[in-house]
Specification:
26% helix; alpha/beta; 7 helices; nine-stranded mixed β-sheet; five-stranded mixed β-sheet
Length: 302
Amino acid sequence: MRRVVMLGALVLVGGLSVVGLSGQQGQNTVEVERLEDNLFVLRGGGGNSAAFVTTNGVVLVDTKTAGWGQSLIDKIGELTSNPITTIINTHAHFDHVDGNVEFPASVEFVAHENTQRLMRENNPVRGLGRPARPSPFNGDNALGIPERTFTDNLVLGGGSDRVELHYFGRAHTGGDTWVVFPSLRVMHAGDAFPGKQIPIMDSSNGGSGVDYPDTIRKASEAITNIDRIITGHSTVMTPADLAEYAEFVGAFRGAVRAAKSAGTSAGDFAASWEVPSRFAGYNSPAAERLQIYVQDMFDALP
């Protein structure tokens, strides 16, 4: 039987129940947003994680930065007595996978085949301006490297416990996985949909600013059985937000293509480009970082 225990004060925000769960003194703080009795968004320490409590175990999506794995274990233990049985990594970036090594060997790790390879390569994130962090994964078969992979689609479990994994192409990285919980009509998009902003287009890890809008559009059109989307670093959003995001990234690609055709340099474009007024509330990175992504797009565009 499923047992879920909610701790802390319950505050209704936008129709969702939000529970603040602080770690014990001296530990990392994990904040938990309850979407359903058996689905939680776990915030803090990197990208947004999600815990899906199934009949016999917990499916965890992403494990944050190094040192946050045990905090996730502790917080999930406060939500349910079911063990963590499966971890899905949406992509290879350190703020979504480095906590893997803190989980027991009994956990099954799952990811797209490109994410498995990229975790082993440990490439620096393009645009962050710093070298790759020391990898917590020692050797190709190290604990925490996903041993179960897929190419296009994968189904885990069945019935109300069913989890669907999809790959639609390059975007944030070359291995972005879209995780769907059909019985709850919720999807975790990882950093392919980080929030309303110009995304990291990490060409060092297979990402593509040129392919990005097409990939988002494919996901938006293919996944129709959802009402809510867990983003990589922002609030829970809607399918309409995802469709708008495809338009936003597509408009950016169009502006980059026009700038290249006009002979504008990547630096000049990055210094002058502004978010179109129709996309109110969207953000752009500093010009120095934006220039890196624009140059990568210039190089890839015909």
